[in-house]
Specification:
The chain is α/β, with parallel strands linked by helices. Helices cover 40% and strands 19% of the residues. Strand 1, helix 1 (14-28) and strand 2 form a beta-alpha-beta unit.
Length: 162
């Protein structure tokens, strides 16, 4: 039987929450899977497919994610089912920032060649951004701190398992 690894790096917990939801969806479809933080992954050999999650920092994939995919490039070859970056400002921020994030995403897609399209999920922040940051990023002052949408995760999982 094939086994899927859902691995992630998470700082505020939203990427972890999304990874766990993906694992739950896979289990409900009868697919064996493990949900493990990237720092705890010891071996990729036991997995037929891998799903990778990362927050976006500074409009790029997190350094911990990049380290993991670089160090495990050979083990990930032809195994990446999907990639899910998480970014609080992706959908509601200025187009300029989204364009920068998309460049980083495109670079990973080219390197990892995932079987399914990458899906960016909205995340959460621990506290309201200072006014200057909201202006810079184009974020409304009334935007909720938690933008995680688990229904969107469920929809992406449907695509993953087709």
């Amino acid at each position: 039987m094939e086994k899927i690894l859902v691995t992630y790096y998470s700082k505020t917990g939203s990427t972890k929450e999304i990874a766990e939801r993906i694992g739950k969806n896979l289990s409900e479809k009868g697919l064996e899977n493990d949900v493990i933080g990237m720092t705890d992954v010891k071996d990729l050999e036991n997995y037929s497919k891998v799903i990778l999650g990362t927050p976006i920092y500074g409009m790029k994939m997190s350094p911990d994610f990049m380290k993991f995919v670089t160090e495990n490039a050979e083990g990930l070859k032809d195994k990446v089912l999907g990639v899910f970056p998480v970014a609080y400002i992706y959908y509601d921020g200025r187009k300029f920032w989204r364009k920068m994030m998309n460049k980083s995403i495109a670079k990973i897609e080219k390197t990892m060649n995932p079987e399914k399209p990458t899906k960016v999920f909205a995340g959460r922040v621990p506290e309201k951004m200072p006014a200057i940051m909201r202006i810079l990023f184009g974020i409304n002052k009334d935007k909720p701190l938690d933008m995680v949408n688990l229904e969107e995760v469920d929809k992406w999982c449907e695509e993953l398992t087709k």
